[in-house]
Amino acid sequence: MANLSTLIRYPLMASAALVCMLVSDARVNAAHNMDMNDSYALHTTGASIGSQWQLSNPLFSNNPLRASSRTQLPYAAKSIDALVGESISGGSPTSSKKEVKLNPQFNLHCASAVLTINAGDTAKFNCNSRIIDGFNGTLRLSLASSLPGAKLSHREINAGMPFTLEVQTKNKTQWGDYVFTLTAHKDSQLKQQSVTLKILPPGVQTYSFNNDDEMIIADNGATAQESEIFVPHHLSTFSLEVDLAIRHSWRSDLSIQLVSPSGNVHTLHNRDGGSGSDINQRYQIETFKGENAYGAWKLRIIDKAPGNIGELRNWKLHLGGFHSQHHAQRSLR
Known about the structure:
By secondary structure, this protein is an all-beta fold. Helix content is about 0%, strand content about 55%.
């Protein structure tokens, strides 16, 4: 027998279970009795550690020393002191630790889910395959697209390798949003990733502006409050999107409008959302198409019910448009 020793101590509780790591075919070298404030010590030697035993509190006659597995100690009725010199043997119970089972697989990821270009330009989506739990093998790639000119850099890749989706357009390519679906598979595993390409007409320039000044929204306000973004470019508006971040515990209290420099109004939010909280949303707006974008754009907010105070955290204006030579020349006079 190898001279291997295990000493485990646990505080005694009235009905607590004691857990000891014992050797298979172990020999008890020493043990001592317990009182209500003592601890239980058990010294064993043996050839190998590998069995986990759960022993009941032996101080109580109705709770004999017993193993928690299907194997019962043959001397369960003996006192603690009587165990000294005895050999402990028996089968190894099932481990209390659950074995972690690996599930090798992969997924697809593209660095950008949305790209915006002008007709005539080329877009490139950088993507990769990610390995999970040691997955390996060759992935077959395919592409679903309604736009001619889109192609993958590879038809097959080793798991974990990057690849690209390239989309070439022409000046006459119809502007709009196009969705591309990438598919990778190996045997029974199949994963997909969709990306969107926004194509603008040739000559459209895109700009983004933001206002990060926080504004407290008065509860049940008598008049609307305003936050402003100034656009310094003379553009004929082609596309417009607004990102809105508002903290409010009852968002259906709110009415929110966007006012263009020319005074036209578009309602973004009109007391929607029930008892939901906060607004974090992007709005696509067609109302101002063709308007001159130059000047102050105003976000108008009013809380129309009592009981909740909110805060405008920030908002952003994403603007696409054609440069207006007429307005540009007039501004230089």
